[in-house]
Amino acid sequence: MADYDKVFAESITNPDVFWAKAAADIDWYQTWEAVLDASNPPFYRWFTGASMNTCYNAVDRHVAGGRGDQVAIIYDSPVTGTVSKITYRHLQDNVARLAGVLRQLGVEKGDTVIIYMPMIPEAAYAMLACARIGAVHSVVFGGFAANELAVRINHAQPKILLTASGAIEGKKTLAYKPIVDEAAGIADHKFKHCVVLQRPFIHAELHPGRDLDWNEALVNAPAVDCVPVAATDPLYILYTSGTTGMPKGVLRDNGGHAVALLWTMKAIYNIDQGDVFWSASDVGWVVGHSYIVYGPLLKGATTVLYEGKPIGTPDAGAFWRVIAQHRVKSLFTAPTAFRAIKKEDPNGTFIAQYDLSRFEALYLAGERLDPDTYHWASKLLKVPVIDHWWQTETGWAIAANCRGIQELPIKPGSPTKAAPGYDVRIVDGAGKEVGPNTEGNIVVKLPLPPGTLVTLWRNDERFVQSYMSTFPGYYETSDGGYIDEDGYIFVMGRMDDVINVAGHRLSTGAMEEVIATHPDIAECAVIGTEDPIKGQVPVGLFVLKSGVERNVDEIKAELVKMVRDKIGAIACFRESSAVARLPKTRSGKILRGTMRSIAAGKQYRAPSTIDDPAILEEISETLKDMGIRRTS
Ligand code: COA
Ligand code: AMP
Q1: Contact call for residues 627 and 621 (beta carbons, < 8 A)
Q2: Alpha carbon of 143 to ligand 1 centroid (Å)
Q3: Ligand 1 atom nearest to CA at 281
Q4: Residue of 409, 423, 424, 395 whose CA lies nearest to 491
Q5: Using a 6 Å cutoff on CB, does residue 142 contact ligand 1?
Q6: In whole angstroms, what separates CA 537 from the centre of its chain?
Q7: Is the pLDDT of residue 48 over 90?
Q8: Domain ranges of the chain
Q9: What is the mean pLDDT of the chain?
Q10: PROSITE patterns from the entry (predicted)?
């Protein structure tokens, strides 16, 4: 049997032995009573009875092991003209003192802390400082508007909020603190203190009594040691888009997460201690949590924290400059970044200007890797281009080409085979497994491996209802696709109302909730449509209230502003159109899926429950007029 097959088979038939072996690479204060506790499905728990500390494993033990002078983080910020290198010893010192600040402000084990920060090392210090004292962090992506931040403040109920005065996004300077202040005003929950890192290019006003200056607070803070936490204690909450305006608070534990992520660094990414790994994402997304901060640091690798864009900071050669300058072994990013580079530099002239001889592999995820981008990147970079598929919920790849185990032949359009630990199946709507090459719902037979979501924060019911109810005994990924005769998985896209815009996961339902508050609008639907660079962009269709005779273009401009103000510019909501009516079932459910198919130029069949099939023709014409409907 080939290595991959053997490793995979063991992970499924004997998960206890498999993950216990992986767990030997983590330092435990106390080892487990059970590797897997399956006594309360679907609430599986890994390493029950064990205690450890994630920060200790990601920072202190490398210093204790004589690697204190190795670089832990390379901060590369073309937007501020900075490159700095932070050793593990320096990281330990910064994290221990920031943990001291949190303690002084009353943060105890189990308390929650919100981190709303740009791509600077202090964002990583903040996450690790929470882990150090057993506090639960929730990082909110800096591109979210005040309202989205307020929703998360209300749900996570943080004692403290950590932020910075602002960021430079491409060429724009953005102030963060006014957003925090606005969110604090909107939210019912009141955090006690806000610690603000003042950046040289933008000053934040501090509210006396509530706000503290980051650097001043650090001066008097004691260095605090790591506290033991149970393996099953929460490490972080990461909110991700569901189908409504209320995001889902994915909860990750400490022990299973550390074991799984450390194992993936070699098995999936072929990264060893001391190697330089670069994940060009943002700490606000799951990729940033797993592969800018925790994974590489648990491994004792060097992680690159890049505050810039693939293009425009300053040009389409930015990625190659970083790879060459920092001797990056592997890069992980989203296909959208490569499509943006390809558009600016189709012949890859920038690539030739840099020494990429140490670069070994490119990893892409976050959205479907279109074969065009795959071929372009592999031809010009001349390294393996590895597509891998995962979700915020899983925290690491469900399907990948595990180069550290055995590099399998690539089939463009497929993220290769199930990663060890994931028993992936395809089922039809009734939950019946289908054969090879038949499209259906992609599900994972329970239990999920360690490191995946434990539950939704303070919402076990929604956890069960969202992921575990439709197909009992299986985790519902909400992605559709098929598995071919060789076991290669093909992911065709979401089956729900979640869309991926430039690698950012967003809810069309949340946008509909915003649009529905417009006084002139009776009802609306937002659907994801294809975009050559961003993968998908949202498009709105709305019905005006009767009697409204305003200029529709004005209303459309108001909708764009409303979505920017309430959700954020990252929603990229720019296109909408008024329609006379929306297609619905007789019970009143809007047929979003059918409209998505029309927009994509796919064959569609009017559902038998449709109220009036003629409406589909009207929608088709509208989308055509908007230049959106593709012809198949
Ligand atoms: N904070 C505040 N605003 C942000 C932001 C942040 N962190 N990130 C993006 N925005 C804003 C942008 O400034 C832009 O605003 P504008 O409409 O006023 O111009 C808007 O949100 C849309 O941004 P984006 O979708 O990033 O479009 P872009 O045209 O600026 O850049 C790409 C396009 C493809 C270069 C860029 O999206 C990119 O680098 N994507 C990779 C994403 C990624 O790595 N995702 C992680 C998953 S692995
Ligand atoms: P997120 O939770 O932001 O990581 O987004 C998860 C979603 O992105 C998945 O459910 C998929 O729809 C999509 N996705 C992620 N990686 C891939 C991939 N390699 N191929 C296809 N779709 C992907």
Answers
A1: no
A2: 8
A3: 44
A4: 424
A5: yes
A6: 17
A7: yes
A8: 498-625
A9: 96
A10: AMP_BINDING
